[in-house]
Structure prediction request, 306 residues.
Amino acid sequence: MARLHEELVAAFDALFGPHPGVRAAHAKGVCCDATFTATPEARALTRAPHLQGESVPATVRFSNGSGDPGAHDAGREPRGMSVKFHLADGRATDIVSINHPVFIVRTPEEFLEFLHLRAPDPSTGQIDFESLAKFVEARPESARAAEILLTAPPLASFLRTPYFAVHAYRFIASNDTVRKFGRYRWEPALELATLTADEAKALPSSYLRDDLLARLVEGPASFDLHIQIATEADQSDPTTGWPDGREQILAGRLEITGPAPDQDVCERFVFDPMRLVDGIEASDDPVLRLRPRAYAYSSNRRSASG
Prediction:
């Protein structure tokens, strides 16, 4: 019997079709070179090496949420921004984020059920929207993510939307006495912008990639990393955002300098939200805890097909 992480990858195949050699989700992407520089506020929050203030090289991958590498960029799936920080000792640590502020469910088992409901019936080619609606109605915590998935307008640019790491982490300071939970958010330097559905569909299939590469010819693009700090009243539940009034720390700036020279090398990278370093610990969020196994399984499958 397949294990849960294998079932999740199979469910993405059923939803988007099998596409050997690519990621089961976020299959279509583009990688960029970047540098990250942390603020003194980040250094006070955590002893993590990439948040001490020195310039750290990074690889950034922007992606569509779909598992179809040929999908049009106008699709409704969330867009991803994954950042791999390359540390001086040869290790790496990652931040994985999407442009939706909350996740659809609280557990991997519920996510598997959701993916099964989203997949078309093989005999009819139709999605059972009634069952999908009942699934969300039975889980009020899923309502916000479902609404965003259904109503969010297409992006105008990968560089003109915020990205949210929907999971919580514990940040540990150098003296080991300050321990705070927080969530990452990337805010772009460019003004936020979206398109209408008709505007997006009229553009080329890879218009987001085209826009990104064209902007980087003109010069670097940047994002600021913010960390929202939890109180004791806040939970690690990825379906629920924390109130806007919570403390916010400006943790650093990411400067994207250009496309990665070897896209094939980057496509072999695994961006893992549980690839952590001393000074940052995972919360008990079960979705977060399962993701590394699903990513590793998908990566091994890609390598085998290549």
Remarks:
- The radius of gyration is 19 Å.
- The mean pLDDT is 94.
- Residues 29-107+153-292 form a domain with the Catalase HpII,  Chain A, domain 1 fold (CATH 2.40.180.10).
- Residues 286-305 form the longest helix (20 residues).
